[in-house]
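2024-03-11 09:14:02 DEBUG pipeline.ingest accepted 1 chain
2024-03-11 09:14:02 DEBUG pipeline.ingest length=78
2024-03-11 09:14:03 DEBUG pipeline.predict start
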Amino acid sequence: MLARPTLTRPVQDGVSKPKTQTRPTEERFLLRVDGQIKRSFSSKEQAVTAGAVIKKVYPVVMVTIVDTADGTIEVVKA
C-alpha cells in the first residue's frame, strides 16, 4: 500500500499563529427568537428595537427579551 504524504505547514519566522475561534461576550439583555438566543445587547432599548424589527417581518415567531441580571422575560409584541 502506498503511503500518503503528510501535509505540513512550513515554519516561517515572524508569522503569527492563526487566531482561534472565540465566543462573543454576552451582554445583559438577550434577544430570544422561538427559544433560541440570537444576540445580546447592553441596553434594553436596543434589544426591544431589534426584537420589534424581527416581529414586524415575521409576526408568527415568539420574540422575547431576557434580562440576565433580574431574571425577567419580556414578550415583544408587534
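2024-03-11 09:14:41 DEBUG pipeline.report The two ends are 66 Å apart (CA to CA).
2024-03-11 09:14:41 DEBUG pipeline.predict end
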